[in-house]
Amino acid sequence: MATLDGLPPLREVIQAHDLVAKKALGQNFLLDMNLTAKIARMAGDLTACDVLEVGPGPGGLTRGLLIEGARRVLAIEKDPRCIAALEEISAVYPNRLSVLNADALTVDAGALLTSPIRVIANLPYNVGTELLIRWLSPAIWPPFWQSLTLMFQKEVAERIVARPKTDHYGRLALLAQWRCDAKIVMHLPPEAFTPAPKVHSAVVHLTRLEQPRFAADFGILQRITAMAFNQRRKMLRSSLKGLHPNIEIMLTACDIPPTARAEEISLEQFCALSRSFAAV
Fold first, then answer.
1. In the chain, how many domains are there?
2. Residue 27 to residues 4, 107, 137: CA-CA distances in angstroms?
3. Domain CATH code at residue 119
4. Is residue 4 a part of any domain in this protein?
């Protein structure tokens, strides 16, 4: 069967390299090249960008990124079994694909790429949320990347874009939306993957803001939201009472009802409360 890049179909690649997906590595391979190219397009024009990809596996999305014109792709793959298959792709795209056999949690990827940089990945389920939080909370903002286009379990994707007064609204939504514009751009059923997971998946596109949406100290905001959502069924005057003896007065001054619960409070209100604590 002919492919757009002249490389073998992904099912043949998996068979040739004996790449049985490992649950311990959170692997679920996306084999439909039409879907991988569509995901690449969701990140916008890649021709002038370097791309970081984490967990490429046999290279389905990698090939989609290169077909769609990515200037250069850095593919970080923890599973050594996949490296030979990825190097075969590199041979077809000289000087455009670099493959690194490493744990993405330990790599300073920004130092290995040239701006502008976009992160595009079908993230391994077992480290996806941790990687996202790291990309959203660097020591210096703005970060090395312009945008993140990432595949997650549907429930995680919904947590990223959730609004107040919904079940999925929490600290992940606040962190993502404080520093980015975030939206779900694609849904995928389990049967799109090999092996099929037990859950649906979704692609989230996050575009960084040059400055956070509302002024707030990151550390204080994290502390307040942690306390509020760790006891999300309690009223804020109870869940936050350990922060300050006059917590009810501070909440009221920020137009936050002391009897409200965390899931009812907007990002803007949490940031206002953070500024209030920074001033005392």
1. 2
2. 25, 20, 25
3. 3.40.50.150
4. no
